[in-house]
From TrEMBL:
This is Oxysterol-binding protein. SUPFAM superfamilies: Oxysterol-binding protein-like. The keyword NAD does not apply. GO terms for cellular component: cytosol; membrane. Pfam families: Oxysterol_BP (PF01237). Keywords: Coiled coil, Lipid transport, Lipid-binding, Transport. GO terms for molecular function: sterol binding. Residues 295-322 form a coiled coil.
């Protein structure tokens, strides 16, 4: 298996379903929004004139998206071309939508609307599998726009997955994240690379600076745990990295569920593939929740899952031709080659009318009842 896949792009590595988690990359993308309340807070702070606290909460949000990667060791499903995922969370005040917009290279685009903000972006994971470790470089810009016009943009840092063959598999994130704002504040965050002797892994350190380049606050914490800040220009480093000092908490990770599954999903992630009867009737035929192999895996039916996965992978090989002969994403569009895919609108309206006539039947043939009778 390894021999067949060395040097390949991670998204295109074909593995038996046993290595998968019952979540697609489209759904995984939504995991980054688990702590969306930080953006609601950021909006409120900015509205009441505190631009610094807005920038700090945006920084906390950008870090919080990594928390759910801790302890994970399974590969998400690579969605089919044109596959979509929606998440309607009225209790969080957010609506999220994503689509796989390109197969060669693999690109996923997403769009999310919250209370006072919009968040969108696309990612093309440039990854290489070299046998012992995999390095993932997300290419693409994430944009956060507040309703009052303030915009922040950043890109995700490099991730490395270690011990692919021997030892305990784990991932780490490292590099510098530059969160650029269009008004007064910008933020720089450094994700420290873990060394073998590291006693304090997963560290993130950084600062918020104003237009003149003056440090307005220092931030520190761990991407799998929490983030703190100290206002002002940082004083001495030792003092600042001690949470018992005068630091204030920006974000704290939710505790993992009591009865973890073999996938180590967070309580939030566990809900993302749920197919409630009411939902099944309104989803488009392209939604990840309707993907048969993923559903079988979630139900623990490995053999059925594997057969379906092979069938869908065979079908998917034709998607290169499809794309070359002018296939276009249904819900996203990009202006120029270097631009980000932008949501063209209309998904939630179509859902209101259950009008999915022009959605392709990407999963084909599968007719079995998907909802658990239990
Ligand atoms: C080869 C197989 C069996 C093992 C690897 C499985 C796990 C650990 C890998 C597969 C795909 C990986 C993800 C791919 C892309 C991203 C986006 C990046 O911005 C953060 C890390 C994150 C979210 C990775 C986390 C680790 C990951 C989930």
């Amino acid at each position: 298996m390894i021999k067949d896949n060395v040097g390949k792009d991670l998204t295109r590595v074909c593995l038996p379903v046993y290595f998968n988690e019952p979540i697609s990359s489209l759904q995984k993308c939504f995991e980054d929004l688990e702590y969306s309340y930080l953006l609601d807070r950021a909006y409120e702070h900015g509205k009441s004139g505190n631009g610094l606290l807005r920038a700090l909460n945006v920084a906390a949000f950008a870090v919080s998206g990594y928390a759910s990667t801790e302890g994970r060791h399974c590969k998400p499903f690579n969605p089919l071309l044109g596959e979509t995922y929606e998440a309607d969370f009225p209790e969080k005040g957010i609506r999220f939508f994503s689509e796989k917009v390109s197969h060669h290279p693999t690109v996923i685009a997403c769009h999310c609307e919250g209370k006072g903000w919009k968040f969108w972006g696309d990612t093309n994971l440039r990854s290489k599998f070299w046998g012992r470790s995999i390095q993932v470089e997300p290419v693409g810009v994430l944009t956060l726009e507040f309703d009052d016009g303030e915009v922040f943009q950043w890109s995700k840092v490099t991730s490395t997955i270690y011990n692919i063959i021997l030892g305990k598999l784990y991932c780490d994130h490292h590099g510098v994240m530059q969160i650029r704002g269009n008004r007064q504040y910008s933020c720089t965050l450094k994700f420290k690379e873990q060394s073998i002797l590291e006693r304090n892994p997963h560290q993130v350190n950084g600062f918020v600076e104003d237009l003149s380049g003056k440090k307005a606050a220092t931030v520190f914490g761990k991407w799998d745990d929490s983030l703190y800040y100290v206002a002002g220009d940082g004083v001495s480093k030792t003092k600042v990295s001690d949470p018992s000092s005068n630091a204030s908490l920006l974000w704290k990770r939710t505790k993992p569920p009591h009865n973890v599954t073999r996938y180590n999903l967070t309580s939030f992630a566990i809900t993302l593939n749920e197919l409630t009867p009411g939902l099944q009737e309104i989803l488009p035929p392209t939604d990840s929740r309707l993907r048969p192999d993923q559903r079988h895996l979630e139900n623990g039916e490995y053999e059925k899952a594997n057969l379906e996965k092979q069938r869908l992978e065979r079908r998917q090989r034709m998607s290169r031709q499809l794309q070359e002969s002018g296939w276009r994403p249904r819900w996203f569009e990009k202006q120029g080659e270097s631009e980000t895919f932008k949501y063209t609108g209309g998904y939630w309206e179509a859902r209101g009318h259950r009008n999915w006539d022009d959605c392709p039947d990407i999963f084909g043939e599968f007719k079995e009842e998907l909802v658990d009778s239990a």
